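Is pyridoxal-5'-phosphate placement plausible here? Inputs below.
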Amino acid sequence: MTDRSDPLTRLRALQAGDLPVHGGRTLAYVFDSGLPEVDRLAREAVAAYAASNALDPTAFPSLLTMENDLVGFACNLVDAPEGAVGTVTSGGTESVLLAVQAARDSRPDIDRPSMVLPATAHAAFHKAAHYFGVRSVVVPVGPDFRADAAAMEQALDETTVLAVASAPSYAHGVVDPVGEIAAAAHARGIRCHVDACIGGWVLPYAARLGRAIPPWSFAVEGVTSISLDTHKYAYAPKGTSILLHRTAELRRPQFFASADWPGYTMLNSTMQSTRSGGPVAGTWAVVQHLGDEGYLRLAREVFEAVDAVVATVAAQPGISLVVAPDSTLVALETDDTCDPFTVTDEMLARGWYVQPQLSFAGRGPSIHLSVSAATLAHAEELRTTLGEAVAAARAAGPVRVDPEVVAFIDALDPAALSGDDFDGLLAASGLVGTSEDGALALPARMAEVNAMLDVASPAMREALLIAFLDRLQRPVRPHAPGREA
Ligand SMILES: Cc1ncc(COP(=O)(O)O)c(C=O)c1O
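Reply from A.M.:
I modeled the complex. Tokens:
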């Protein structure tokens, strides 16, 4: 029987099962200013523009005005020279995709274009490589988790259309040596993109607060484009990022027009064509409200929270920093008395979401924290909760995967597995069970699942998780008259 009660009541009930987006205790996926008026403003602006379409700036000129305001604000943040231009996109991944696509299409003379990435570059670059047929040349990072500029320089060749640096990298929160990477690219006439999706809105304020931030902006010669996400440290509602180019000429290949059909001439600066005005209006309202002073204040708070986390970790046996953070992202590792996956489960059981990161390139698993300004008010609670979570994880001891299971997984070729094989593997991993009513059941604790994924190769992890997503995304069809239930 279809539930016909108030959809908003049902929405709220559904949402109660999600991670909280407010409260400063969800330390990945969401960014919380801790200011209720910012959220109220964003909600109203999103609602007012939810049906407006940014596809056509002549039909919705107010959205063009807002986008130009946002790009102008971003230009000032990142030392963009006169003549710099930008585009509001739907998020960091779209900004990265467009930077790669524009770089590829700026060099039609290159048959098999490539890009040179530090191993710590965000996975969005691998997605871009996959979508646009650009070969990724992945260069291992140095022992400090920063890009190895000399090795990246060595990797540049006549097929390279783009060199990439992060400010900071997601997994470790450190800023790459942008100056050296950009100089090497510039010397060869190659574009250099700085992925400041995370840092773009917060590192400029960190520098103003007197923190030591290595140069990464357009002030660095040779940086040709920068991505910075408003839906992260601009504390705007989800659905916006900004891609800046040093010149209009560099942006030009990003644009797409098609008059080759009988309808309106399609004219786009982004991957999307119809684009909701909601996120643009919500972001504009938040940026107007907070302004430079507001962001400086929030940066002071978020870095105070980061410093509190660093001090907490320094005093906590069993856990340590992977590397000292340059920005607002903190990566933690455990010693051999416990494991990161049990710690993340124990944190969640106490109302805090921190994100597990699997082993990579010879380094063990870790725990990611995206610290928000709102976290500062709970810094003391975070200290006690982390202490309790680590103590519980140490009492339980490190989660182990049966060596026979490790050998079994090692022997599998993900490319050769059938749908049935994946069903069996997903059930065996505990990632997907079946509840009494036949629906998929997700595990409440993830440590064993993560530990199993951790021993699998990246290719096997990808295959398993794609199979998992495939099984999650199945339609729930309402009963239709005339169709057998
Ligand atoms: C450095 C970096 N680049 C790109 C992205 C992708 O952004 P989004 O999730 O908004 O697509 C992220 C997301 O965390 C990021 O940290």
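Short version: Residues 91-93, 96, 122, 124, 166, 170, 195, 197-198, 229, 241 surround pyridoxal-5'-phosphate (CB under 6 Å).
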